[in-house]
Specification:
Number of helices: 20
Mean pLDDT: 85
CATH class of the largest domain: Alpha Beta
CATH superfamily of the largest domain: Histidine kinase-like ATPase, C-terminal domain
Low-confidence stretches: 1-14, 114-120
Number of strands: 22
Distance between the termini: 35 Å
CATH topology of the largest domain: Heat Shock Protein 90
Structural class: alpha+beta
Length: about 650
């Protein structure tokens, strides 16, 4: 467990006096260490990974400026990270304002960098000037080497402060060099255990970010070495975002083999997009600004969507694929089965927050809309066969959506989707404040009976589901709305769905999936997660979806019983008893526990363990759901064969 400093607050003066002594001034990087969440989002694994991304973004900025074509990322066995590029290297001459070297200024001062209009970067992702200094502030040890003009400059830091002077050295500390580099920057840091809850980088999370960076920056070679697992991966993609879209669609049946590629430069901004349709029912659209994944979209994504809908309607009318009496295709009609990547590179992006989740520049919408409209119109005129396939798919989608609308109107009139007519099988709670309430989605009537008997009726509602729900990854909206169990679930939550989803009306701020610890239970849990990911992603993003953790075993020695929640806990327990006779009971079904046991182990807020469902990487999540729950059998079979050895399902 990581050590963490706790600030002890002094008691206020008895007279309540408020003076200048109560005003604190945080100097240097002390503010970052005092409130790290303001700068990196959190101090869990997500924030830990942000340190790598800050340095990666700086190297990518060098690449976009045309001065770097190789980037190396290395995670060492103890958790130390080393980032290197062959760019120009951080300047080392004296900075006029700080009186220190430019390197020390960049590494130890907030809002210091070459991206504030000084001419060093035309396009950049790191515009706040805090990236490198964040790494220094939140690391117990950092050293930086700058290779310039045949010399190696080095300086070391600890928790935001320089611990050595800038010096010229004869030999690099980087032990993995393949010959000397003419120029570049090498940064090595050890995350501070006083700040971070864990120093455990996730291999796949880092891989996904590096792959994205390589897709979005043509001509850059990125090497990743993880010494903890002895793996090395290299990323280089000539096709840019087109290669990205092919990767996203690689397990799907596509309408045409080569993605539509559009690249335009307007008013100093570069717009790049790749578009390809598959035979699925969900859309996957990803937007980037200066190689930063804007997961919450923004003006560039809005412009892309507007152009897509307008151009397809104009083309459909012009080619008579849409008759005079046919309604226009809606935005949803044109996006079903669409996989698209939109990337813009502009001089002054307006990001929301240091983690840059949304692009706010209002002028970008019109520029992107114009670029996409021109490029897509040209493509459709030059590729009539592909154009016909796209319009035909959109028309089929439009007809299916109209059928779904009628089905939705019917159930809305019956009050089944907005919570005004609650289902009879729902055992509701008495509290009406959503932040106090939780809904347990329980597998089967037997477990539902135990949960109803064991719950706290004031704030715990129980909804038992019968059997396995519909796999919505293989079904259109109208089929989903005709599925009784899903209609009941939508009604119980009371916040609508799809375009009419309103989380303000959600009746429970903890929606908890509670299924049996066997194969069927795992399948039902996966089906529910698929449903929530495709139709209720905002609910997941808000942190309202959880998975209950019922025990697997009850072990007893003599009269003393213990609940065990994993095979690892069982193994540890068995070793601790030194050969004593253990009576062991395996609980595969929730219905095997009586009401008191279910409350004690799984539902009591004082004792239970809940797993909150988070989407660390929407791109990877989309690929997994498509691969494991989609129509194509081959990718699923391949996945099962590759991971069969890791399965822990009982025979």
């Amino acid at each position: 467990m990581a050590a963490r400093k706790t600030q002890v607050k002094k008691k206020p003066a008895q007279n309540g006096e408020y003076t200048a002594k109560d005003i604190q001034v945080l100097e240097g990087l002390e503010a970052v260490r005092r409130r790290p969440g303001m700068y990196i989002g959190s101090t869990d694994e997500r924030g830990l990974h942000q340190l790598i991304y800050e340095l990666l973004d700086n190297s990518i900025d060098e690449a976009m400026a045309g001065f770097c074509d190789h980037i190396w990322i290395n995670i060492q066995p103890d958790g130390r990270v080393l980032c290197r590029d062959n760019g120009r290297g951080i300047p080392v001459d004296k900075h006029a304002r700080t009186g220190k070297s430019a390197l020390e200024t960049v590494m130890t001062y907030l809002h210091a960098g070459g991206k504030f209009g000084g001419g060093a970067y035309k396009v950049s992702g790191g515009l706040h000037g805090v990236g490198a200094s964040l790494v220094t502030a939140l690391s117990s040890e950092t050293w930086v080497e700058v290779h310039q003009k045949g010399k190696i400059y080095r300086q070391e830091y600890s928790r935001g402060k320089a611990t050595t002077k800038l010096q010229v050295v004869k030999q690099s500390k980087y032990p993995y060099q393949n010959g000397a580099i003419k120029s570049g920057t090498i940064t090595s840091f050890m995350p501070d255990t006083e700040i971070f809850e864990t120093i455990n980088y996730d291999f796949q999370t880092v891989v996904q970010r590096l792959r994205e960076a390589a897709y979005l920056t043509k001509g850059v070679w990125i090497q990743f070495v993880d010494e903890r697992v002895d793996r090395e991966l290299n990323f280089f993609f000539e096709g840019g975002v087109s290669s990205f879209v092919r990767h996203l669609n690689h397990d799907r049946e596509v309408l045409f083999s080569r993605p539509i590629y559009i690249e335009r430069e307007l008013e100093g901004m570069t717009v790049e997009a790749a578009i390809q349709y598959n035979d699925g029912y969900s859309e996957a659209m990803y937007s980037f600004a200066n190689c930063i994944n804007t997961i919450d979209g923004g003006s560039h994504l809005t412009g892309f969507r507007s152009a897509l809908t307008r151009v397809l309607n104009d083309y459909g009318r012009k080619q008579k694929y849409l008759k005079d009496g046919d309604p226009n295709l809606s935005g949803e009609d044109t996006r079903e089965g669409l996989v698209a990547v939109v990337s813009v590179k502009l001089p002054e992006p307006q990001f929301e927050g240091q983690t840059k989740t949304r692009l706010g520049n209002p002028e970008v919408k019109g520029l992107v809309e114009s670029a996409i409209a021109e490029g897509l119109s040209t493509y459709l005129e030059e590729h009539p066969s592909e154009g016909r396939k796209i319009i035909d798919k959109c028309v089929i989608t439009s007809r299916a959506r109209e059928a779904a609308r009628k089905a939705k109107d019917l159930v809305v009139r019956k009050g089944l989707l907005d919570g005004s007519n609650l289902p009879g099988k729902l055992a509701d709670c008495s509290d009406r404040e959503p932040e106090n309430c939780e809904l347990y989605i329980v597998e089967g009537p037997s477990a539902g009976g135990s949960a109803k008997a064991g719950r706290d009726r004031r704030y715990q509602a129980i909804l038992p589901l019968r059997g396995k729900i519909l796999n919505i990854e293989k079904a259109r909206l109208e089929k989903m709305l005709s599925h009784e169990e899903l209609r009941v679930l939508i009604s119980a939550m009371g916040c609508g769905f799809g375009e009419n989803l309103d989380l303000e009306k959600l009746r429970y701020h903890r929606v908890i999936i509670m299924t049996d610890a066997d194969v069927d239970g795992a399948h039902i849990r996966t089906l529910l997660l698929t449903f929530f990911f495709r139709y209720y992603k905002p609910l997941i993003d808000a942190g309202y979806l959880y998975i209950a953790q019922p025990p697997l075993y009850r072990a007893q020695v003599g009269k003393v019983g213990t609940w065990l929640f994993s095979d690892a806990e069982l193994e540890k327990y068995q070793k601790s008893k030194n050969g004593k006779k253990i009576t062991l009971q395996r609980y595969k079904g929730l219905g095997e526990m009586n009401a008191d046991q279910l409350w004690e182990t799984t539902m009591d807020p004082e004792k239970r363990t809940l797993l909150r469902v988070d989407i660390e990487n929407a791109i990877e999540a989309d690929l997994i759901f498509s691969q494991l729950m989609g129509e194509e059998v081959a990718p699923r079979k391949k996945f099962i064969q590759a991971h069969a050895a890791q399965a822990t399902i009982d025979a």
